[in-house]
């Protein structure tokens, strides 16, 4: 279980995360939503142990997150960052292999290779294994990074999987596959926390949603409880219609067309 209690994070005098509390249980997929600059990535950096809270505590499996050694943490949580920059000329296979580094000494064992092959299959990148990472498209690179992160924790159920905008560069097929995979891992006992910008994907795949605004927890609960016109306006300052999909009973969010507002602004600029 992951327990976040009254966590605040400051960079200098700037408050990026303010007094946030929530818990995630094994088997749960939590989606973090919020406007640009709301503090989502800052929160993820705290949950991964990359940054320490300025106040409050984070416990992973009952132990204070910051008391884990780097090696222990590498076996208990994996994080896919928003920007994964690799400038060296590695093969896609070598990038995925990096995810297994914490598990072996000199060479990957047959078990490690088995996992590397499995994660490359489920992320649809087996055919890219001998390609130079630098020559891959944005969406392909993202899937290679996802495979690398999955390789790290694939054989550790109850591990914490942190995904910061994992599907942003992916086409609709891989968006669905990636989130279905995350949901499947949650069902196997992993704790999955993912930042998404697409509220419809959140409605489709989240067990719970955490909506942040100005670094604070604004809403937290099941999609059916918290996704509505008011919460979307509160958090995104955007008017949207929220329907219920008659087949799945999940929310469908349709932002209102605001072309007329933009035209008004442009018109004013042009005529002054
Ligand atoms: N080191 C820092 N020093 C000062 N301000 C920072 C620092 N890091 C982030 N910020 C600011 O804190 C706010 C939250 O940033 P964060 O990256 O967590 O937002 P986010 O919700 O992930 O946004 P996005 O959706 O655009 O990725 C932003 O306004 C950002 O400019």
From TrEMBL:
GO terms for molecular function: ATP binding. Residues 2-239 form the ABC transporter domain. The keyword Chloroplast does not apply. Keywords: ATP-binding, Nucleotide-binding, Translocase, Transport. It holds the Pfam family ABC_tran. SUPFAM superfamilies: P-loop containing nucleoside triphosphate hydrolases. Part of the ABC transporter complex HmuTUV involved in hemin import. Responsible for energy coupling to the transport system. This is Heme ABC transporter ATP-binding protein.
